[in-house]
Specification:
heterodimer; A: mainly alpha; B: mainly alpha; Methane Monooxygenase Hydroxylase, Chain G, domain 1; 4 helices; 64% helix
Amino acid sequence: MTIAQIIFIAISAITVIASILVVASRNLVHAALWLVLSLAGVAVLFVLLQASFLAVVQVVIYIGAIAILIIFAVMLTRRVMRETKPQVNRYWWIGALAALLLFVTLVVILNQVPSAASSVSELPLPEEDLLSMLGTALVDVDGFVLPFEVASVLLLAALIGSLVIARPIKLDAEEGDEA
Amino acid sequence: MFGEAHMHDQWIFVAFFLPIGFIAAAVPIIAARILGPRKPNPVKLSTYECGVETVGDTWVQFKVQYYVFALIFVIFDVEAVFLFPWAVAYNQLQLYMVLEGVLFILILAAGLFYVWRKGALEWS
């Protein structure tokens, strides 16, 4: 076994164990913290796949923002935070079935990948060049400039929508006073 | 597989610092466990907070505004991810390409302006 394989197995084990603890923890805050560890493990897997940019994105967005958002959401609701509920309800078998179906599908798809394509090969270019190529493609007229700008509008819509939904009621009342 | 070690060069430092970080945090705790004498009494075991008596519960409820700020943060976090490759490629871009990135920023700046005018950034 090579060093990279040992690291891969260790990181995968940490990721899987943390993922199991996410659904097994009785305390929601603890589950959210285990989720952070699980996401960090995925970030390391990205590094092992030479996808440094994706690894940084994983840390910045999923750990830095999404996980924190989840923790905030849990801590906002006092009742949910304190209660330790059982991990299963009567629909548990539907979730288990869906997970099993997904697993089988993934195994079938992975088996169809030719073994030559699944072996490790060097990147055609250094990562930095690939990243700057991505940057050029994002704003190139022949590339992805339209999706790039649409993404901006989508983010704007998400920003306004989230604010409309999440705005405290008190602010609305103040605005009503002004009007 | 050492032949491909060079491609992870930039991450080897992280790989070294990560265990050091954990060890640096663990050593004082474990050393205190081993070295410290343990003669507990109720006063010693009581919770303290810089000498002041603790107030209320450890699991405090957050203000809703934290959540609003976190939501806004997520949006601009994603914006940063889009802009990062654009900024890396900056030297190879033509002027109109740079302006497209500026347009991207301006569209979201309008969102920031909306949030600001709506008073969601005020801490009440």
